[in-house]
Design brief:
CATH topology of the largest domain: Purple Acid Phosphatase, chain A, domain 2
Helix content: 10-25%
Order of helices and strands: EEEEEHHEHEHHEHEEEHHHEEEEE
Strand order of the largest sheet: 9-8-7-6-15-16
CATH class of the largest domain: Alpha Beta
Length: 379
């Protein structure tokens, strides 16, 4: 062992092993009558723990993987130090010969290399417009959409729009009235988009990702919105894609993950130990918490590092939630205000609700990100 290196002890080997130890495992709270019991576990052992940590410099939540330092006291592992395992950079992952197809799609290595070397350099200006909480039953939202569409129709259409739900200001109810109300929103959008000739000519894609209050089962990943609820939108408007949630998009060699979920808000609810806060924080999230929340998700390499009862993931599709290797960009739509940060060469963005008129413009090849505002037509 080299100087400065430390020995990692498995959870199973902690029993009867005196002295300070460093172990790695899943930290979780037991769902039983003894409120407040925590355990750390790996594939072979579940060990009761006592959290003697007052605060952490990084997010630590229920059902997250951690490095824990402490010592055995009786049958309990007393933890007085917590460390987060840092994410592996994309470059390092690819050096390990991780298949590029793990991201999704059926393109071969030769096809991906051709896209990167031959087509990507001559299409470096391709732009993605990303929006969240696009309420199609709101007149102000529809006005802002029309202004945005007309602006890009004249200035030059983007490569794609990514619309994340919810697509109605009120939760979908599976009644005749609920279906009618929901379909009307897409009818309005369809009417608005019929005149976008420059978008059609340039082959712009319109990607729609359902939100938690849109139609569908409350499980992850969520299935695409069905045609009968979207007024046959995808059949009548060229380039429309009804996508899953989360959605993975490959733009030449660039990999983008979009996810509509309030995971950033839920992280706070499931904190195992408090996060060290900046002096400026009064309540909720500050800049430090935003950055640490983004880092935590990327370090965990999973879009929803939360307890099972909160994440509600279909286990046979859990791989769709993975963030390994790290993509080039991750966009999260939810109730959290817009912010962006970079970590391990991955751009992480909370898109924020569109009802305030803000959205993001992302240039994947250039690796540039801009927050934009819809101009006020009245002013």
């Amino acid at each position: 062992m080299f100087q400065g290196q430390r020995v990692l002890t498995t959870v199973a080997s902690l029993v009867g092993n005196p002295g300070r130890k460093l172990t790695f495992g899943l930290l979780r709270k037991l769902d039983d009558e003894l409120n407040g019991r925590w355990v750390i576990e790996d594939l072979h052992k579940v060990m009761p723990v006592q959290l003697a940590v007052q605060a952490s410099a990084h997010f630590v939540t229920d059902a997250s993987f951690i490095l824990a330092e402490g010592e055995i006291q009786g049958s309990i592992f007393k933890i007085d130090g917590l460390l987060q395992v840092e994410a592996i950079t994309r470059e390092a992952s690819l050096k390990e010969e991780v298949p590029r197809q793990i991201f999704g799609g059926n393109a071969t290595d030769d096809q991906l290399k051709k896209l990167e070397k031959q087509y990507e350099p001559i299409n470096s200006d391709g732009m993605f417009v990303v929006l969240s909480e696009v309420h199609l039953d709101s007149a102000p939202v529809l006005d802002m959409l029309e202004t945005m569409f007309q602006g890009y129709e004249q200035a030059g259409p983007p490569a794609a729009y990514i619309f994340m739900g919810n697509f109605s200001s009120r939760p979908f109810v599976p009644t005749a009235e609920g279906v009618r109300h929901y379909r009307e929103g897409f009818e309005r959008l369809k009417f608005m988009m019929h005149g976008l000739e420059a978008h059609v000519a340039s082959g712009t894609r319109f990607i729609f990702i359902p939100g938690p209050k849109d139609p569908g089962a409350q499980t992850l990943p969520r299935a695409p919105l069905p045609q009968y609820l979207t007024a046959n939108f995808a059949k009548e408007i060229p380039g429309v894609v009804m996508a899953t949630n989360p959605c993975r998009v490959r733009h030449y060699s660039r990999e983008i993950v979009c996810f509509r979920h309030d995971v950033l808000r839920l992280l706070r609810r499931h904190e195992a130990v408090p996060l060290l806060s900046s002096e400026s924080q009064v309540q909720g999230f500050d800049d430090l918490r935003y950055t640490q929340a983004a880092r935590f998700i990327l370090d965990q390499a999973h879009l929803v590092p939360l307890p099972l009862e909160e994440s509600n993931i279909l286990w046979e599709y859990d791989h769709t939630m993975w963030l390994y290797p790290l993509p080039h960009a991750v966009f999260i739509g939810g109730s959290t205000p817009p912010f962006e940060c970079s970590y391990k060469d991955c751009k992480f963005t909370s898109v924020g609700p569109f009802n305030a008129g803000s959205f993001y413009a992302y240039y994947p090849v250039k690796d540039e990100l801009q927050i934009c505002d819809v101009p006020d037509r009245a002013g």
